[in-house]
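Technical note accompanying the year-one report. For the benefit of new consortium partners, we illustrate the data format agreed upon in the data management plan: each record pairs a sequence with a structure-token string. No post-processing was applied to the example shown here.
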Amino acid sequence: MKKRKPRRKYLQPVGSKACPPEYLHMDAGIRKTVQILVEGGIETLQSCQGGPGHCYPEPIVEFGGGYAAGYLALSIAITHGFRIDELRRVWSMQDGEPVGPHWAMTFRGLPVSDHG
């Protein structure tokens, strides 16, 4: 029988000084936030650090999951000192039909650890 890897707990120190390769394609300003949420068990869909030249005016992480996923992400974000602006359920429109829902969490600025 194959042994399963133990799940990471979100309160562990996250990452090393070098950025893990799976996060290199992300905006540098939101990378650590996404990493912390993913390591806490959140299935992220997209993210943006926000600001001029970006898709969103504010930092945002969108993620999937049921009702509990929103509260888990909120708990992780609060535990790590993120300044949350909004947590909302989102239905997008595709070909005139609502699709979803998924979650969106926006932030008032980014943690200091995301800037560098």
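Partners are asked to follow this layout when depositing records. The beta strands are 44-48, 60-63, 84-94, 97-107.
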